[in-house]
Structure formats: C-alpha cells, structure tokens
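Researcher: Quick test of sequence recovery. Tokens follow.
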C-alpha cells in the first residue's frame, strides 16, 4: 500500500523535531552538571527508545493471530466474538485461506476459519489498510475490544500488539508508544517497526479501546522510522455496522479482558529492554519497569513523576540528571 507523499513529508519533519527534543533531554545532564547532595541518590532510569517489545503475558486476550498455512501472517483484534479487525494487506479478497487463533493458549488454542472479508466501501476510508474478518466459529470467553470514537492526536500514547517473535506464538507488546505525527487517516508511532505483517491494534491506554491498526513501517533515513497506523475512527460506522450484523453475542461469564493502563509497571527488570515501555528504574535496592512522564503525561496510581539520572545501558553507568520517569511512591 503506497505511502501518501504529503503524509511522508509531515512524518519526516515532525519525527526530526521529536528526535531532536529527545536528544536534548539526553544531553541535559551536561547543562545541569553532576548530581550533588541529596540528588546524588536520585533513582537511575535506564532507557531504550524505541523499545522492541516484550512478551504479552495475558494483558491483551482480544488480540489474535491471523494465520495462513499454519504460519502467522498478521495480528488482529476481536471487535465481536466472530469479527476480527486487521490490516487489509494481510488478507486475500475472499479470506477463505485464513484462520484466526486466540492468543490465549498459544499454538494449541482452537482455530476459527475465516468465512468472509469485509472492507470499507468508499473513499477516503476505502483507501485505508483496514479489513474485517468474519469467522465461522465465535471465539468465546474473551471480551472484544471497542473502537474509540475519537481519533489519535499528536502527543497521545498507545499500546501496540504484534507477533514479532519475542516469544514464538506469543504476542509482543509495546507500551506507552508516543504518537509523533498524524493526518486525517493515519498516525505515526515512534516504535521499532513491526516485522510480521503488522495488522495488530494500537490501543488507547486509558480506555483499552482501539484507535488504529498497524499498517506498515514508516520510511526512515537509513534506520527504523516507526510504524504507520491506519486510524480506526475514520471507519467507525463501517465497523459498527458489521459488528451489529454479526449475530454473535459475548459469552456470559467472559472474564478475559484487555488491561487498561501500563501492562508491566512495577515488574522486576534487568534492564530497559525487559520492559514494555522501555524504561527500567533502579530505585534504591529495587529495579522495576517504569515509563516516561511529563506535565501532560501522568504516572500510574501510587507513583510520581521524578527527574532521574539517566543511563542508556547497564554498562554506561549513570550520566547525571536528565530523564523524567514514573517512580513508585
């Protein structure tokens, strides 16, 4: 699916600005000088940006694997027990050669055959890399995801889920991913580009609703350029119409629900690469997964935004104050 030239220009300009801002934050230790007094004991934040993702440990049960000939080709998201939202480029016109497998249970989970594919009918939504898969057997026991009525905006943060092979057959999750550019139909996410067909959802942290579908890697200048996500608010009425006609009700007693907020905040980590948001905090004797924060970017409950000494890997040692991270209260 070709990129839109105007959007590519916007991506390049805004991404350059974001990279420059992030670089400035890393360099601020040189401006502030070495920590002294009580601040010398400030927490250390090890940062990996953008994070490559970690194994999703059951936080996103509504994410499914889309398979062809037994191999995962894309991720998708249940929006009804028998309807899966994914990328259009992942499917053939009929979809009859595809199967969908719930992530819960891994490779042994039952598979549902795709009986039909529905795509947005007209421009501009018809140009989006979005499709709905209609299943012959509903996936029960999982609460489907809703599609958020409002679109993503510059400065928002989302969680993305793919099947990039961190753990074979298990979804990979990237948490607190910033939206660094957006157009009327797409958004650029600052993360390592998805490697296995994309198709997975971009999930709003606060509501656990879908705001986009991972479409393709963004063009980069000799390196990763992030992921472009197709905005799902553009096709909200289309999705709602298909879901209304599906006929499959959510099974009573369904308890598997997608997690709101950060998926591993507070979990023990050996380094930033172990954490879904790419931040590992060394706070006294404790080392745990965290995330970045700021004036308009609040921390999870029972934590506060704190200026930490920065390091980019365990081998570098702290480089001085320079990174705002959420620290347990």
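Model:
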């Amino acid at each position: 699916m070709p990129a839109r030239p105007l959007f590519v220009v916007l991506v390049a300009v805004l991404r350059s600005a974001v990279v420059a801002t992030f670089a400035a934050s890393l360099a601020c230790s040189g401006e502030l000088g070495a920590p002294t007094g009580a601040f010398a004991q400030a927490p250390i934040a090890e940062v990996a940006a953008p994070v490559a993702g970690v194994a999703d440990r059951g936080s996103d049960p509504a994410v499914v694997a889309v398979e062809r000939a037994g191999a995962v080709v894309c991720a998708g998201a249940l929006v009804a027990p028998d309807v899966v939202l994914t990328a259009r480029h992942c499917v053939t016109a009929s979809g009859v050669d595809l199967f969908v497998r719930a992530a819960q249970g891994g490779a042994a989970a039952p598979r549902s055959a795709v009986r039909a594919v529905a795509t947005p009918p007209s421009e501009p939504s018809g140009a989006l890399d979005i499709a709905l898969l209609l299943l012959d057997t509903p996936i029960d026991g999982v609460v489907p995801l809703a599609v958020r009525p409002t679109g993503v905006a510059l400065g928002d943060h989302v969680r993305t889920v793919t099947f990039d092979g961190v753990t074979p057959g298990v979804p990979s999750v990237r948490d607190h991913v910033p939206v660094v550019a957006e157009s009327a139909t797409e958004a650029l996410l600052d993360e390592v580009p998805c490697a296995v067909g994309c198709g997975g959802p971009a999930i709003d942290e606060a509501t656990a609703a879908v705001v986009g579908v991972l479409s393709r890697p963004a063009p980069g200048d000799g390196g990763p350029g992030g992921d472009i996500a197709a905005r799902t608010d553009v096709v909200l009425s289309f999705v709602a119409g298909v879901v209304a006609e599906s006929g499959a009700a959510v099974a009573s007693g369904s308890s598997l629900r997608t997690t709101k907020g950060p998926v591993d905040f507070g979990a023990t980590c050996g380094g930033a690469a172990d954490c879904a948001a790419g931040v590992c905090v060394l706070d006294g004797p404790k080392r745990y997964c965290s995330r970045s924060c700021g004036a308009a970017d609040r921390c999870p409950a029972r934590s506060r935004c704190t200026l930490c000494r920065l390091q980019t890997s365990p081998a570098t040692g702290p480089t001085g104050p320079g990174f705002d991270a959420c620290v347990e209260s």
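The helical segments are 5-32, 236-246.
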